[in-house]
Amino acid sequence: xxxxxxxxxxxxxxxxxxxxxxxxxxxxxxxxxxxxxxxxxxxxxxxxxxxxxxxxxxxxxxxxxxxxxxxxxxxxxxxxxxxxxxxxxxxxxxxxxxxxxxxxxxxxxxxxxxxxxxxxxxx
Length: 123
Fold this sequence. Notes:
It contains four helices and eight strands.
């Protein structure tokens, strides 16, 4: 069996990115590597997201991050109430039912939940 263990994204400010992922999605800081401008963040399932400061590479996001949440509509309401802008509110999209936003460096974030995807995400 293969299990994705960690992922690195290049950002313009690793501390700002850490704060954004911690405050909006509940990641916890696992450790820092200051000499490499890197902060490791971990989600509830044990996946580590490395945010690595490299402004040259963060200008063209190279991946999208998909987060499974308990309830996409309540997560959208909560984040919107805290001023987080969304590109698309919860709705039927090309990939199913969910919401879309971007992190501070422009990485696309896709939010979904199992129940809404089953009930509203089909073709």
